[in-house]
Model the fold of this input.
Amino acid sequence: MRRPILTLTLALAALAAAVAPAAAQSGTLRIGMGVIPSNPDPAFDTHSLALFAYNQMFDTLVVADDKGHLQGALVVSWRVLSDKLTWQFKLREGVKFHNGEDWDGAALKFNLERNADPKVRSNWRTRTNEIAQIDVLDRHTVNVVTKRPWAVLLKDLMALGMVPPKYYAQVGLDGFSRAPVGTGPFKFKAYDKLSHLTLEAAAGAWRGKPGVAEVVFRRLPEAATRVAALEAGEIDVAVDVPVEDVERLKAKRLGFKAPNIAQPQIVILKSTVDSPLKDVRVRQAINYAVNKDAIVKSLLLGYGRVSNGQLVGPDAYGFNPELKPYPYDPERARKLLAEAGHANGFEINFDGTEGRYPKDKEVEEAIVAQLGKVGVRVNFKIVDSSVYIRDYITGKLGPMFILGQQYHPSFDLNQGTPNYKSAAPHKLLASPEFDALYDAQASEMDPARRLALLHKMGAWFREAAPVLFLHQFQTVFGVQPRVKGFEPRATSGADLVKVTLDK
Amino acid sequence: MARFALRRAVDLVVTVAGVMTIVFVMLRLSGDPLGLVAPQDASAEELNELRHAFGFDQPLWTQYAQFLARAVQGDLGQSLQFRRPAVELVLDTLPMTLLLTAAAIALSAAIAIPAGTLAAFRRGRPADRAIMTGTLVGQSIPYFWLGIMLIMLFAVRLGWLPTSGSGSLAHLILPALTLSATSMARTARLVRAEMLGVLRQDYIRTALAKGLTTRAMLFRHALRNAMLPAMTTLALDTGILLGGAVVTETIFAWPGLGRLIVQGILLRDFPVVQAGVLYLSITFVLINGSVDGLYAILDPRIRKAA
Done:
């Protein structure tokens, strides 16, 4: 009885050994996400999950570390010449695109021009607005000249994935998006806008040799389905697992990672239209009236952090460690309102969203209830997501409305803050003081002085309170135990080069 | 026959033109898709430039005239979100929606017609009661909940079927079942009610009296007469399912047209919505036309009247 089983076991073991590939690079990493890039061309989707996918296929000039400091990528070093306008970039040498084309100065120039080309309609085109001229000095040295001293040039350019000029000229805009080519550790294999983006390991990439042969980003828009697919073992990583599911799934030996992400939740308190919000005491009162800790604890189940009274978290350049959150103090809120002449409260319109940000409707309802307790009667209305961003950028929402103030991918307090300038069509704020602070930091070329200016801008923001500071939420990644080396970061999703799969 | 086809062709053109006009106007009632094409940090000048480039600053009738002029040449514009010709996107996804709808309708007919017949024949008995309870449940369950429950049971717990996606017959089963639930329940109830009426008719008694088996009586005589209303609901359901597969397509990550159109509406991707609705309405008119044709085949009275 025993012998046949033993023989069979030995045979199977031998077979398994023979079938197992010798190289470490094997297997397909399957990642389920709510959205995948709406187009494989990196110029056309700004969603942080799209950037996660693009980052595997394309490289940018520089990247940010977990504190918002720049590190070289396709540009290894840079310096600003004494005219404060000319940036001299040294390019990484020996880098080739997946089609064999060289990464060189001409390629850099081409990419910046492509982004600025109105016919291309890059979603990042405002990022090249400050560039006046591009001079290729030699194959690996390029001078980029800005129209005015522009300290955040590289942070602006961080969003752009670099594409090969010769190939692009050959296939055109449309052809490129059908078969894109980059310099990343993975190259394009297949794409179906409603189903998946599939990449395969590229040879000779400067970021290293991937530990998996293939990566599939599967589009699973419904969170419950994403969780089911993770439970059924159909995907290895589920991006954005509802926080309520985490405890139950942990019992099934699934791992979870929740890095802080660069999207603070705020409520804009517009002071550009006629409303009690014009008075700074009212705006501060609103900040005191809302219990941020309770929101993070009971609505986000702890998957978030209360904002330190500023628009960025510790992962961004310009984060001011001195600033503390507005404490929850309804008494003080009432006192400030009384001082401002609203002892009996006032009425205000609040535009909210549903399903745009994690738990947004619940958070909005909590705010409405807590403001009610200090006498602010909020007319709350959910605005259809189809017009929300348009009404935001054209200044039609509010005077109170919710917003995710994204600072991905620059990781610099500067990102997003131009929208608060008096001239911006958003009409969030009209303060000559802020305009001056903004312009000063954007044109300060000395890093130490600029950091000090950013800290000053942050402190001004906390005092002037043109927003209700809430929290930053964490994206929860559910991970199968067989996945090794998957380390999601705020800055780039995760670098998949280091990921390997156990048998 | 030629007259029938001609009249149908005229119907098709009038219906589609009407639908397209309504969709065009409705989409623009809530304003332009500037939020989709403009970066969030665009300046006022950049916003105006974009409005102009896309023609959003033109009066509605000018935009409509341009749309018609291009549409007649087969150009329905570029999707604003995917930057692909809208027609290409629609033609990529329409077959998936047709497949899902056809599977759901086939499943609905295959289960509802025998179940309804059985319930009528066993009226008041346990089989009838079980089937009627089932239809009540089927009609009242929301797609969303049913879909998730089916995934939990068949994909997560039992591991028999994939949770979501497309590409094989196995992928089709759960979404088709989810999508068919309401239609199946409605059709079964209708077949039962019709059969109850038919079974009381004299010719049924005659058929039994001349020695036909129960089965032959049921399926050759009774069911054929009860089928017309069932076909009508199934045809109507096809229309509902074609446009209403959105929830199912979302849960099962099914790359279909319904989901594409709704995403288009949410993001104000006008060209995609317009092209999608155009193709859906053509499909719908064609299906209705073929059902009318089928009536004529099934019922000689309609043939004579036509």
In short: The two ends of chain A are 30 Å apart (CA to CA). Chain A has three domains: 1-12+24-57+184-259+475-503, 59-166, 264-473.
